[in-house]
Each structure stands twice: as structure tokens, then as C-alpha cells.
Design brief:
α7 runs parallel beside α14 (716-728), α10 packs parallel to α11 (513-538) and α13 packs across α14 (716-728). Helix content is 24%, strand content 24%. Bound molecules: dioxothiomolybdenum(VI) ion.
């Protein structure tokens, strides 16, 4: 990777807390989300979903539905028209989780699988018709069990994800050992914006308004599955009401909408209902993890072994990758991670905020707490003494790792040294306190990106990039970079994203969108600036006529001789030259699979949590959270803080509330609504004290920026369950913590023990 070391000593805008430039559009309701798009002649599609979890469709009776008011068409496996499967994914292109196109055949593999779709003049008519389609099934036995470890596991066989040394030997001879199984339920992404697709079709070309975290991939997949060239498909996602990973890759409804539009030759809108969102647009799978730790008497880790199994769907493989962080977070000569898949009759699982590391660290950081107890050692201390010098999984030096400082800073801000280790030993205002902590980490990476910056005669700039804003501030951070480079104010910078016809940009995922666009946008702005200086020096009536463009500079939106004060605004320069606009395109490479990569890139952090416990009424509350994050330079600390706070809130939900429950009789996810699938809300979360260490990671990109989308969630659930144990004496290893788990707390009695 190029070693661009444009260290920003001073910037009027980078690192400055900046409100979202798209905020006014959203708060006034004028931002166009995907399902807001409307067309003359728009028809509405509503899918019919399978009411069995395994079997074969023996008959579909559409006779009643077809005669219902407003109904335009009813489609099923027999008449939807051609759809194709994609070739295997390469890099970050052509990714689709559920490989089978919708309605491909008569086999049903999960409850909620689409089996037909009705299209009508109104959404109510479409829904009524979809519900009137009579589908009969030949049922076969299904399996939606969440017992994973120790049950027969289908092919592929468990694989070794990370291995060094010999854990079996080290565990056998360890001075201190810990061995436990940690269980996580299925979790469902619940962005407030429902998944939706508005498909317009004309002369073989598709314009698709999608809820997509990756418009370029969505275009490529849809083109391949519809069987048309990529230039015949345009995917647009101007705004997203979040996605949490559920909107990374295309789901079957998108193909249904496009097929219906093609068949009827008119625009079709399909909005996935909240209930269907628990069935057919992904989820974090149920996961069992056995963690074994060995340490010598001083607390130095001698072995880490993690064996996990996650469920996947009947047809496709989704590996949660729970060992992502296990190989490098702590120093240990012996490490083994194995991963296995258990096939279940469930919809296809997918990435959910912090896939791999978030569940993995729930288990590892819980196990570290349990080991610290056995060692009678402070849990912060246990982590500090196991700090590695380098990435022991690859041998690479860390590009920028400040985990120790996260731990010590967090401990100090939280007041950790006042902690007394005895269970139930801390009280305040009649409440029992529990204090727990956990470390966290998440990958730091960048992918390929391209962007173009234009400088206009009216004194404005325009930047385009085929990435999208998931809602976290991508529009704003890109505008900040152009402002940084040109000196134009933010309100003169237009940012255009969310369109697959723009220069290809990164996915809004993996926490790498920001880090990826940095080099491309800076380079584009520099090239546009250079082109402006060429205009200034090379046009007839220019005040800089006769100067070389190298003698000029663009500062604060004006051109001047280097170091001089007399400046001419860029608008004036272009006006004099009668040039409408100049532009520059930047292009940058990714870190993935780059053989020249010399560093281990990761972000780090630590969470300190206080819970309050009232044994008399079994009332548990999270009362205080201190989080310290080491994630490179914060380009926009306001948006970044907001990201971490949101992730920590999600962590409270993961620890205490979130679980998708499958009815074992029908195989249906039964709490498929926002009343019964409980997520953390304001009343569940205290003020979250977020600190950024703000060490720039210049090996990753010229601004030293990493990403903060996911790291804030990693470790939170363990910090909470560790605190729950400190307060109650109950070690919950089966998320979420339920009141029932705590009813046997020997609390009061143990306080004096
Ligand atoms: Mo995230 S799960 O990479 O959208």
C-alpha cells in the first residue's frame, strides 16, 4: 500500500465534531428512503410465505386470489419466469447469502420461505390476495433446535480456524484451568426501516430502489440472477434507516419485485413486513461456544481453545467466524479455534453488527473473567499481563494497538480501583452493585474505492462515490474531506452517494467504509485542485497568467501564489476562464489479500459496566457504562461517539433482551414483532461515557482513520454478565440474562461471606 503520510497537523474540519449534513433532510421528512419512491402506474407486490418449515409444495390454488379486486397477477414457481444462480463470489463482488432464487422449485426449507407473490393495484389488495392463495404441502420433519454443540453436525465438518502450539497438552498440564460453554440465541436485525424494493422496468433495463448497504454488489447480483448485463441494472439507495448487516447482500424479495416489474412491464413496490423480516432477510445464528483457558500460577495464559458451532440454513453455509479475535487479542503459545455448522430449517443467517468477533468476544471475555476469579486476580490485571508484543496469529507487528491504555484509562474513569471483589459486596443507596469489564477488538480494514470531485464555477463542489450512507454519517465525513482539501465550507459541498452507476465505492459494512473512501476522496480532491490551478495558470485573462501551476496553491477555496495573501476565489478563476467545472478522480486499493501488507490492523477498546441489583424484587438495571475506544483518528467525533453509544445500547439488548424464539412445533420464529422481540431502549440504558484515544493509524490511510461501526458492540455483553455475576453470584452463560436466571441468587447471604 502507498505510504501517503499526509499527517494532518492542522485542519479546520477534520476531527471537528460536525452535525450530519443530511440531518435537515431527515428531520423534515424530505429524505427519500427506498420505499418512498413512487411512480405513476405503480403496482404493489405481497409475498405468500410458507407455513411449514420443511416439505414440498403439492398444490398452489390461485383461483380465488386471481379474481380478487385489483389483482394484476399471481406468481409462483410455475410462472415467475427465469431467474439464475450466481457464480461463486470473488472478493467483495457477487455476494448473495441465499443462493437459491425465490420460487425456484417446490421445496420448502424454512418457515416463511416465499412460495408465491400477488401483485395488485394497492398494497391492501395485494396482501389480501397473497393471503388468499391456498398452498398445500407434503410436510417432512424439520429441525429448528438450538442445541448445537455435541449434536450431530452436518457437513461440512468442523474446521480449524486458528491453530498454534498444542492446546491439548497445555490444558492437561495447566496450573489453573477454565472450561465452559457459552450459548447465544438467534438474534434478528431490526433496523427501523423495513427492507423494501421498488423496481421499475423498461426495455430490458431495471431501475431498482433498494434498501442496500452495498449498491454495487446488489447491481451485480441482480444482473446475474435476472440474466441481464450489469449495465441494464441500476441500484439506488439514497438513505438507509440502518441495516446492521441485514442489508449488506441482496435477499429474495428484491428478485421478486424485479421479476414482477418485468412480467407486468410496470413499476412494482414490495415492502417486507416486520414479521417477514424475522424469516427471510437474515439473522445472527444461534451459537454454542466451548472455551477452555489454561494459565500458569501467575496468570499468564498457556492455552486458549474455542470450539464453536453456529446454525446455518439447509442449503447454504454461513460461518459466524467466532474465533476472529482469539488468535491475536492475548498472548498465548497455544491457541486452537474450531468452527462447525449445524444445519437447521431456518432462513439464511448473515452478518450482524460485528459478525464473528461480537459473539466470539462474548465467550472469550466471559471466560477471562471466570479465569481471573479462579486466579484470584483482578480481571483488568489479567488482561494487562497477557498483552502480546505482536500479532501472534500472523507474526506481524500491530499497526496501532493501545489496548493497555484503553484498559487503564477506562479503569481510572470508572473508579475501578474502588471495586471489592466479593460477590454482592458493594452497595449504594440500598442497591447491590455489580462491576464488570471486558476488552474488545474489531478488524480495521479498507477496500477498493473510487470517487470523483468536481469544482464548479458557482463556487461549489460536488463529490460522487458509489458507496451509501447507512445512517452513520458517510455523507458528512466525505464532505469534511473535500472541505479539508479545498477549504470550501461544508454548505458549498454536495455529496452524491447511493447509486450503482457512480464510481464504485465500498460497502457500508465491516466498519471500513470511512477508511476506504479516505484515500480516494482526498486524491480526487487533490486532482480537481490541480486541474483548477492549471486553469488559473493556463487561461488568457487569468490574473495568474504566465505563472506555473506549481507556483500556485488552493487555500480556503481560493487560488493564490504560494504563501501570498492575494487570492482569487475558485469561482472567479473558473468564470474568467469560462470553464464550467474541473474535476479529478481518485482511486485506491484495499487491504484485503494485499501481499505487501506488513501490519496487523485492528481497533481496540474496553468497557466498564455497573449494574444495580435488588434481590427483593429481582430487579436488574445497567446503571453506568464507561467505554474507551482506540480506533484511529476520529474524523467526526460527534458521529463517532453516536456510533459507539448506539453499539453499546445494542450490547445491553444482546446481554439482557434479544432472542428470536423458534416454535419447535411449527419451526416459526414466533416473537416476530417489535413488541415480543425486545431490544434495549432509552429506559434500559444509562448515560454512556465514551472516550476516544485518537491515535491516528497512518499505515491504513493518509488521515489515520479507521472505523467505529461495530467495535462498540464487541465485549459489552460479557462486561454486563461479568457485572451480573459480581452483583448476584450467578454466572449466566446463556444469553440473554433472564429474571428467572437470577431468582436463585444467594445474594444477601453471600454479601457477608
Ligand atoms: Mo456490518 S454486519 O459489516 O453491516
Amino acid at each position: 500500500m502507498e505510504q501517503a503520510q499526509e499527517q494532518i497537523k492542522e485542519s479546520k474540519i477534520i476531527g471537528v465534531p460536525t452535525s450530519r449534513i443530511d440531518g435537515p433532510l431527515k428531520t423534515t421528512g424530505t429524505a427519500m428512503y427506498s420505499s418512498d419512491h413512487h411512480f405513476l402506474n405503480l403496482a404493489y407486490a405481497w409475498p405468500t410465505t410458507a407455513t411449514v418449515a420443511s416439505g414440498t409444495i403439492s398444490n398452489i390454488d390461485t383461483s380465488v386470489a386471481e379474481k380478487m379486486p385489483g389483482v394484476l397477477a399471481v406468481y409462483h414457481h410455475g410462472n415467475l419466469g427465469p431467474l439464475y444462480r450466481t457464480p461463486p463470489a470473488a472478493g467483495f463482488s457477487m455476494i448473495v447469502d441465499e443462493k437459491r432464487p425465490p420460487l425456484e422449485d417446490t421445496t420448502v426449507r424454512y418457515y416463511g420461505q416465499y412460495v408465491a407473490v400477488a401483485v395488485a393495484q394497492t398494497v391492501e389488495q395485494a396482501r389480501a390476495a397473497a393471503e388468499a392463495i391456498k398452498v398445500t404441502y407434503a410436510k417432512t420433519p424439520h429441525n429448528t433446535s438450538d442445541k448445537l454443540l455435541g449434536t450431530p453436525i452436518s457437513e461440512p465438518k468442523p474446521k480449524e480456524a486458528t491453530k498454534r502450539g498444542d492446546t491439548t497438552k497445555a490444558l492437561a498440564s495447566a496450573a489453573v484451568k477454565h472450561d465452559a460453554v457459552y450459548v447465544m440465541p438467534t438474534e434478528t436485525h431490526n433496523p427501523i426501516e423495513l427492507h423494501a424494493s421498488v423496481a421499475a422496468y423498461k426495455d430490458g433495463k431495471y431501475t431498482l430502489y433498494e434498501t442496500s448497504q452495498a449498491v454495487v454488489n446488489h447491481r451485480d447480483v441482480l444482473a446475474a440472477m435476472l440474466g441481464v448485463p450489469p449495465e441494464n441494472v441500476q441500484v439506488i439507495t439514497r438513505f438507509l434507516g440502518s441495516g446492521f448487516g441485514g442489508k449488506l447482500w441482496p435477499w429474495p424479495h428484491s428478485l421478486l419485485a424485479a421479476s414482477c416489474a418485468r412480467n407486468l412491464n410496470r413499476p412494482v413496490k414490495l415492502v417486507v413486513s416486520r414479521s417477514m423480516m424475522f424469516q427471510s432477510v437474515g439473522h445472527r445464528p444461534a451459537i454454542d461456544q466451548r472455551v477452555q483457558l489454561a494459565a500458569d500460577a501467575s496468570g499468564k495464559l498457556t492455552a486458549i481453545q474455542q470450539d464453536y458451532v453456529n446454525h446455518t440454513s439447509i442449503q447454504d453455509d454461513y460461518d459466524e467466524g467466532c474465533g476472529e479475535a482469539t488468535g491475536f487479542l492475548y498472548s498465548s503459545p497455544n491457541v486452537l479455534v474450531t468452527g462447525g455448522l449445524a444445519r437447521r430449517n431456518v432462513g439464511m443467517p448473515t452478518a450482524m453488527r460485528g459478525p464473528g468477533a461480537v459473539p466470539g468476544l462474548y465467550a472469550l471475555e466471559s471466560a477471562m473473567d471466570e479465569l481471573a476469579l479462579k486466579l484470584k486476580m483482578d480481571p483488568v490485571q489479567l488482561r494487562l499481563i497477557n498483552e502480546p508484543e505482536k500479532d501472534e496469529s500472523t507474526g506481524q507487528p500491530f499497526s496501532s494497538r493501545h489496548l493497555k491504555e484503553c484498559l487503564t484509562t477506562g479503569a481510572e474513569k470508572f473508579g475501578w480501583n474502588e471495586r471489592t471483589p466479593g460477590i454482592g459486596s458493594m452497595q449504594r443507596d440500598g442497591l447491590t452493585l455489580g462491576w464488570g469489564m471486558a476488552a474488545c477488538t474489531w478488524i480495521a480494514a479498507r477496500s477498493e474505492a473510487e470517487a470523483t470531485v468536481e469544482l464548479h464555477q458557482d463556487g461549489s463542489a460536488r463529490v460522487i462515490c458509489g458507496t451509501q450512507d447507512i445512517g452513520t454519517g458517510t455523507y458528512t465525513v466525505i464532505a469534511q474531506m473535500v472541505a479539508h482539501e479545498t477549504g470550501l465550507p461544508l454548505n458549498k459541498i454536495e455529496v452524491v452517494l447511493g447509486d450503482s452507476s457512480l464510481p464504485p465505492g465500498p460497502i457500508s459494512g465491516g466498519s471500513w467504509a470511512t477508511a476506504s473512501v479516505v484515500p480516494a476522496v482526498l486524491q480526487a480532491a487533490q486532482k480537481a485542485g490541480k486541474s483548477l490551478l492549471d486553469v488559473a495558470s493556463g487561461t488568457v485573462d487569468s490574473p495568474f497568467k504566465g505563472k506555473k501551476s506549481e507556483e500556485l496553491e488552493l487555500v480556503d477555496g481560493s487560488v493564490r501564489l504560494k504563501g501570498q495573501t492575494n487570492a482569487v476565489s475558485l469561482a472567479e478563476v473558473l468564470k474568467i476562464a469560462k470553464v464550467k467545472a474541473v474535476s479529478g478522480t481518485g482511486k485506491s486499493e484495499g487491504t484485503f489479500g494485499n501481499p505487501a501488507l506488513k501490519y496487523s490492523f485492528h481497533s481496540y477498546g474496553a468497557h466498564f459496566v455497573e449494574v444495580t441489583w435488588q434481590p427483593e424484587i429481582a430487579r436488574l438495571r445497567v446503571s453506568r457504562i464507561v467505554t474507551v475506544i482506540d480506533a484511529g483518528r476520529m474524523l467526526n467525533p460527534k458521529a463517532a461517539r453516536n456510533q459507539i453509544e448506539g453499539a453499546v445500547v445494542m450490547g445491553v439488548g444482546m446481554a439482557l433482551f434479544e432472542a428470536t424464539e423458534y416454535d419447535q412445533r411449527s419451526g416459526a420464529p414466533i416473537n416476530s414483532n417489535l413488541a415480543d422481540y425486545v431490544v434495549a431502549v432509552n429506559a434500559d440504558t444509562p448515560t454512556i461515557d465514551v472516550t476516544f484515544l485518537d491515535y491516528p493509524d497512518y499505515n491504513l490511510n493518509p488521515l489515520g482513520a479507521r472505523g467505529v461501526g461495530e467495535i462498540g458492540l464487541a465485549g459489552v455483553a460479557a462486561a454486563i454478565t461479568n457485572a451480573v455475576h459480581h452483583a448476584t453470584g450467578i454466572r449466566v452463560r446463556n444469553l440473554p440474562v433472564r429474571i428467572e436466571d437470577l431468582l436463585t441468587s444467594p445474594n444477601g447471604k453471600l454479601a457477608s461471606a
